[in-house]
Write a structure and sequence with these properties.
- The chain has helices at about 5-10, 20-40, 50-60, 65-70, 75-90, 110-130, 135-160; strands at about 90-95, 105-110.
- The chain is mostly helical.
- Strands 1-2 form a two-stranded antiparallel ribbon.
- β1 (about 90-95) and β2 form a beta hairpin.
- α2 (about 20-40) packs across α6 (about 110-130) and α3 (about 50-60) packs across α6.
């Protein structure tokens, strides 16, 4: 009996399969974490997608819009909707690249840096509180497993494009 047949026979329904259970648990945890973060960030007037952008500009000052979109796994249309919102609030600036004027480089304003630091504190507190009872070794194992999954999914995406 091959591995596929054995798996099907052992796990008649998809929800009985450990990989299915793991996939669903990760998806649900992600959804609940996003909802909790959305509530916590509401006082700052930003949402998780804004925070993702701000944190990446904070970490990689001068990142191009294209590089940022790749890091966040979003399309340019998504970026073109979110960046003007942050720019209009005075949180970010977009400037042409010195060597290639078609490339826009992103940086935080002083107000954007302050708001990003406040938001990162909120996010870090939420993460610490949510995972405080989990052993660090287990957190690292989960992170490594999810990073491998991300890599596999990205590789599949490249094949499909």
């Amino acid at each position: 009996m091959n591995e596929k047949q054995e798996t099907i026979e052992q796990h008649h329904f998809p929800w009985d399969h450990p990989r299915f259970r793991s996939w669903i648990a990760v998806a649900r945890a992600c959804q609940l974490a996003q909802q909790a973060l959305t509530r916590k960030l509401a006082g700052l007037g930003i949402k998780p997608p804004h925070l993702d952008i701000l944190v990446n500009i904070y970490r990689f000052e001068g990142i191009s819009q294209q590089e940022l979109a790749r890091k966040l796994l979003v399309g340019r249309s998504n970026m073109s909707m979110l960046l003007p919102q942050l720019e209009n609030r005075g949180l970010i600036e977009r400037r042409g690249d010195e060597k290639d004027k078609r490339v826009l480089r992103l940086s935080l304003t002083a107000g954007g840096r302050l708001l990003t630091e406040q938001a990162m504190e909120i996010q870090t507190t939420l993460i610490d509180k949510s995972l405080e009872s989990e052993p660090i070794e287990e957190c690292l194992m989960i992170a490594q497993s999810m990073e491998r999954l991300i890599q596999r999914l990205l590789e599949e995406e490249d094949v499909l494009d």
